[in-house]
Amino acid sequence: MKVDNIFHTKQYSTLGQAVMRLRWRGVVTELIITATIFASIALGIYPYGYDRLRRRIVSSKYCRIYCICVDVILICLALYAWPKEKLVNLERIYYWTLVQLLSQFIIAVNISALFVIMWTNWSEYASVLGIIKEFATFERTYFARHKRLATTCVTYANYMILKSLAMVLRNISYIYVVLVLIPGMSFAVAVVHTIAMILVNVISLVVFHFYMFILATYRYIWIMKQRIKIIAASTGCRSSQLEINEITGVYIRILRLCQQYGRIYGKLMLLCICGVASLNVMTIIVLLFVWRSSENALNMMYCWYVLIINTLDFWLTIAVCELALGTAAQLVELQRYFNNREHMDAALAREVSYCWE
Fold first, then answer.
1. Sign of CA dihedral 243, 244, 245, 250
2. Which segments cross the bilayer (predicted)?
3. Which residue in 14, 118, 122, 154 has the most C-beta neighbors within 10 A?
C-alpha cells in the first residue's frame, strides 16, 4: 500500500508540474503577443489601436496619423544614417568593398520597406483589420470550445518563445557593440548605430508578424487535426459529421486568409527577408574581422554568440513554415478519410474539392 501511495503521489506531482509548465507557456506567449502589438504600434507598423478591456485590435484614426508620422521620421533617420559620400560617387561603385555594398543595400531595403509599410497601411487598412478580426472571430467561436486542447499545443508556445528570445538576444549584441566592442565611439557614430538598430528592429518585427501568422495558422490546423483524431477514436468514421463539416469550413476560411495575407504583405516580406539575409552576410564578414584582429576572449565569445543567435533565428523562420505545411497536409488526409459529401451542401462540397485538388 505504501509503495502504491508513493507511486500515485509521484504521478500526481509530475502531472501537476506538466500543467504548471503549460500555464506558464501560455502566460509567456500572451505577454509576447501583447508586447509585439504595442511595439508594432509604437514603431509605426500597425496603424491601429488596442482595446485592453476587450483585448483586441481596433480601428483608430489617431493611431493612423501617429503611424504615418513615425514612418516619416524613420525614413528621415534612415536618410541621415545613409553614408552620403558614397552616393555622390556612384560611378566608382566597382571600387566599393563588399561591406560597403551590403551596408548601402541594407539601408536602401529599410527605406523601401518603410515606404511599402506606409502604402500598405494606407491602401489596405480595412483589409488588414479584416484579417485580424477574422482571427479574433475564430478564437471566439470554434476554437473557444477547445481552449484546453489549445493549451496542449506545446510546439506553438516553444517556437514563439524561442523566436522572441532570439530577437532580444540580438538586440543585446547591438548594445555590446556600442559599449564594449568599439571603445571610445564618438557620439555621431553611436547615433548612427542606434538608428540602424531601430531600423533593423522594424524589419525584424515585420518578419515576426509573418512568423506569428504562420504559427497561429499552424495552431488552428493542429487543433482541428486533434479534434478529428478524437472523433475517429470515440465515435467512428461516419459520425459527428456536423463538426467535420464545421472543421472543413474553418479550414477553407483559413486558406482564404492565407491567400489574402500573401497578397497584401508578399512584396513587403520579400524586401524584409532580403534585408535580413544581407544583414546576416554582413554580420558574418564583420565577425571574421573581429575574430582575426582581436585576442580578447570576450570578443571571441561575442562572435560565437552572434553566430549562434543568427543561425537560430534563420532556422526558426524556415522550420515554422515547414511545420505549418506538414500539419496542413496531415489535416487534409484526415478530412479525406471523413469525406461524406451526402451531408454537405453543394457550395461546401465544391470548396472542399477545390482545396484538396
1. positive
2. 31-50, 62-82, 94-117, 173-192, 198-221, 268-292, 304-332
3. 118
Return the beta strands (E) in 121-237 as ranges: none
Given a contact cutoff of 8 angstroms between Cβ atoms, the answer to whether 203 and 210 are in contact is no
> Is the separation of the CB atoms in 199 and 309 below 8 Å?
no
For residue range 223-251, what is the model confidence (pLDDT) as tens digits?
888 888 887 777 555 556 777 778 888 88
Give the Cα separation of 180 and 175 in Å (integer).
8
Q: Which sign, positive or negative, has the C-alpha torsion 68, 131, 205, 265?
A: negative
Matching residue, cell 487543433:
223
> For residues 305 and 176, what is the distance between their CA atoms, to the nearest angstrom?
11
Closest CA to 303 of 316, 318, 284: 284
Report helix, strand or coil for 153: coil
- The pLDDT tens digits for 171-224 are 888 777 777 666 666 777 777 777 878 888 888 888 898 889 889 888 998 988
pTM assigned to the model: 0.81
Q: Is 60 helix (H, G, I), strand (E, B) or coil?
A: coil
| DSSP state at residue 238 | S
